[in-house]
Specification:
Blueprint (H helix, E strand, L loop, with lengths): L1 H8 L5 E7 L7 H10 L4 E8 L10 H13 L7 E4 L5 H11 L3 E3 L2 H5 L3 H7 L7 H19 L3 H7 L3 H8 L7 H10 L16 H6 L4 H13 L3 H12 L2 H9 L34 H20 L8
Parallel strand pairs: 1-2, 2-3, 3-4
Amino acid sequence: KLVKGLVDGTDIPITVKIRVGCESDTINVLENVKAIREAGASAVTIHGRTAQQGYSKDANWELIQQAVAESREAGYGHIPIVGNGDILTHFEARRRMEETGVHSVMVGRGALIKPWIFKEFKDNATWSPTARERIEVYHTLATYMKEHFGDDKMGRKKAWTFLPWHFEFLSRYCSYPEDEFAVQSTEKPLIQSRMPSSTENDDPLDVLLANRSGDAHDVIASILWESDSDEVAFRKLNEFSESVEFNKILMTGYSSEEDQVLANPLPGKAGRWNKRRGRKPGPKRSDEEIAAIRAARALKKEKIIASGGVWPPN
């Protein structure tokens, strides 16, 4: 009823994302896909786990494949079904599409760990960025946040809901070349496997970028926020990676919450799962502050375009 009401009430295409069920003993993905498409949805995304599972088990792509086959047999093959779950590499994405017949795949944690996964899929090739190249990507992210939230005390406070937190994912990055990991990925999703060490060469900067400590993430975020260029960010992070301060963080170890970001719910009784850690609401701006920030952005955009530049900046 909800989907049909939305479809009938707007000209905008309505898409729906679902899980395969709420709990392991109430798998109802086929019934839900049927009801959603008959209600007029333009596409359906299926995450191959129950809500109860969290990330404790691999995504069930067989159920997704069944939903695709059933939709085609029922004459609804024109309605896209998007598969979701455990996609970390371009070759895993293509294999899932080929094996299940989904129209496309949706990436979640994989994009938080390596935002360039979309470039890899487009190029059909693994990109293994150096520490410098990763810092350029991370500095771009910080720059976009400054433009969005504002380059002031309030803007930084709002951005800090996301930027240090994002490094709980970014710090898990390691390279997975297709020729080395394609076979392994068929046995178990790479994102669900124990990742190989990315600090074997003991380069201080690589050690820093792979560190899971929240204290390190806060410093990294601060350096990226305060740096005026990629080069400055690279130099300051290099200096911090060799500092006494970072060595103290290494000696202290990781925080007790380091893996909660992957959202594995703690074991509980059947039908119940603990609440995931959420983000605290960000501070609110006044209408005047919002208007001033928007005016500053508009002026910046106008100047860049007038000088023959590109907006948004690359």
